[in-house]
Each structure stands twice: as C-alpha cells, then as structure tokens.
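An instance as discussed:

___
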Amino acid sequence: MTTANQSSNLQYQQSLSSYFTLKYPITLYSEDEGEYVAEIKDLPGCLTQGDTLEETINNINEARELWIETAYDDGDDIPLPNN
C-alpha cells in the first residue's frame, strides 16, 4: 500500500488540511432494514451507517476526517486514495 508519507519524499510532514483535500472513493451498501452503510476501503476501519443516504454521506465524511486526524496526530502513515 502506498502512503502519502512514503510517496511524497518531502523533507517535512504535509499539513493536516492537505490530507483533508484528498478524494477517497466511498462504497455504499443498502441494508434490508432501510439503513445505509458507507465505507472508505483505503482507510482501514473507516465506516459508518445512517438512516438516509444524506445522513450516511455526512457521517462518512466526518468519519474520514476523524480517521485522518487520528492517524496524523499519532504519526501513522495515511494511505493515498486508490482511484
């Protein structure tokens, strides 16, 4: 897996806001009960659910930012999007 830190070969760490601008593909699933599940496969464990598509999209965007912020604060590599 290529990460932003590995591929950039920069002498400094990218800013947190630059990671927030990366566009990650979102996978949506419809549940039998009418709920939706969203996952960003490039960010392991980044998933959420919602009662409507709008709520689910809002939730996954928040989950993406929290995932990136936590990895950044912990000094972990942040995977680049696989487009």
